[in-house]
């Protein structure tokens, strides 16, 4: 057996092991990568990318064409010896766990997650829960910042296309459109608030977790006012239940909550809640505006 054959055998064994270990976690990783790859913002959100598609610039079109030809993961697992070596290489890259790993959690785990954020009452349950574990290097950076401070848990909502970059590089201020209460990454201890910022994204490939998805990150943040502003004192303009992180390294993702968009689901009451929160935010912004203070 020559070196190339040995490499192929190892590649097959590695991919098979990861798919058998947690195929739904692998499917999510591929789905968020594909969402970034098909996004109109792909030059900023589709990072990192496989080295084979990078020459002077990233060849997104070739990468997309190649990725579309990869079968669904259930078929890959059933016929793992028949897919091409290039397909195995890309799949192994996409599900690589050196930066972070995902582990599926049962839906019964949701009350535990929601209580971390201080929510005791029932709220909108996700269809899938994934625990995120970062590499020792990333975890140590967070531990160093949290050494002399308590931590707090909160949700962060964003479009699925952003999560390929977010899971690899952390929450990034430049991806945020909201700056109503200052620059930074916005989080909230109220899940339904963050769902408003997590738009439904349509995945244009066959997958296991669904084609129309919302994603919410459950984050742990260092409770230091210099890095994370909280709306629980009169010293800040940040509303209650909100957090604004100005230091991205002071926030780390612990869980991903995935919602399948099903037209059969009853989202009416959810949107009423969202509308009410929007009115509250508008009132707060108006109250804090210079025009309001000057005239009233």
Automatic annotation (TrEMBL):
Annotated PARP catalytic domain ranges read 126-199
The molecular function terms of the Gene Ontology recorded here are: NAD+ poly-ADP-ribosyltransferase activity; nucleotidyltransferase activity
Q: Where in the numbering of this chain does the PARP16 N-terminal domain appear?
A: 18-93
Concerning Pfam families, the annotation shows:
ARTD15_N (PF18084), PARP (PF00644)
Q: Where are the transmembrane segments?
A: 267-287
* Gene3D superfamilies in the cross-refs: 3.90.228.10
Coiled-coil residues are none
Q: Which InterPro entries match?
A: ARTD_PARP, PARP16_N, Poly(ADP-ribose)pol_cat_dom
Q: Which UniProt keywords apply?
A: Glycosyltransferase, Membrane, NAD, Nucleotidyltransferase, Transferase, Transmembrane, Transmembrane helix
What family is this protein classified in? Answer: Belongs to the ARTD/PARP family.
Q: Which PANTHER family match?
A: POLY ADP-RIBOSE POLYMERASE FAMILY, MEMBER PARP
Provide the protein name: Uncharacterized protein
* Species of provenance: Dimorphilus gyrociliatus
């Amino acid at each position: 057996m020559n070196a190339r054959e040995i490499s192929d055998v190892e590649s097959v064994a590695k991919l098979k092991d990861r798919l058998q270990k947690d195929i739904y976690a692998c499917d999510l990783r591929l789905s968020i990568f594909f969402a970034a790859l098909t996004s109109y913002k792909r030059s900023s959100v589709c990072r990192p990318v496989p080295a084979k598609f990078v020459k002077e610039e990233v060849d997104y079109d070739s990468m997309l064409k190649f990725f579309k030809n990869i079968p669904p993961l259930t078929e890959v697992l059933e016929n793992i010896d028949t897919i091409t070596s290039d397909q195995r290489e890309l799949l192994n890259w996409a599900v690589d766990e050196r930066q972070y790993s995902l582990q599926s959690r049962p839906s019964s785990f949701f009350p535990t997650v929601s209580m971390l954020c201080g929510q005791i009452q029932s709220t909108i349950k996700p269809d899938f829960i994934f625990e995120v574990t970062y590499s020792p290097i990333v975890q140590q950076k967070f531990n160093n910042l949290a050494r002399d401070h308590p931590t707090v848990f909160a949700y962060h909502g964003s479009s699925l296309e952003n999560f390929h970059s977010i899971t690899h590089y952390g929450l990034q201020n430049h991806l945020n459109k909201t700056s109503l209460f200052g620059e930074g990454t916005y989080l909230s201890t109220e899940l339904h608030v963050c769902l408003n910022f997590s738009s439904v994204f349509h995945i244009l490939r066959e997958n296991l977790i669904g084609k129309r998805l919302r994603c919410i990150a459950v984050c742990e943040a260092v409770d230091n006012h210099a890095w994370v502003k909280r709306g629980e004192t009169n010293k800040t303009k940040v509303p209650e239940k909100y957090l604004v992180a100005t230091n991205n390294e002071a926030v780390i993702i612990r869980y991903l909550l995935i919602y399948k968009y099903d037209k059969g689901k009853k989202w009416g009451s959810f949107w009423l809640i969202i509308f009410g929160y929007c009115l509250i935010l508008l009132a707060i912004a108006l109250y804090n505006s210079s025009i309001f203070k000057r005239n009233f």
